[in-house]
Amino acid sequence: MISIGMVLGGPEHVGFDREVRKLMKFCRENRERGFIGSEINVVYHVPGAVVKPDYVGVRTGTFSRKERCLMVQIAVAEEFAALDDTDQIRRYIFETADEAIGLGKTELERKGVHYDIETDRALLDEWFGEKANV
Description:
Blueprint: E1 2-8, H1 14-29, E2 39-46, E3 57-64, E4 69-75, H2 78-81, H3 86-110, H4 117-129
Helix pairs in contact: 1-3, 3-4
């Protein structure tokens, strides 16, 4: 199952923060649906006035064999963090989360851990397709 986290480098990117929190809530509310035992924790690193990510793109992070959980980190580029258009922000979050679970699946398989990417892709599709998403 997918879970979402965020590290904010400052208070300035309110729109991006708001949309990631909506996905966090959606994933939390749908946590038990189709859960097979392994998890990918996608963490957005959002640049700000206090701190900026020291890497670019998507990378794997900590893996816990005991908890069967892999962290995948996404360094959000400044131009995406600063977007004002909610639809563009949501599309960016959706596309990068999908990329992250793809990378996570590859890494988990390499470690011999089964991960059901189709369930998480369906969950992301459902979140992205919601029009009201309040």
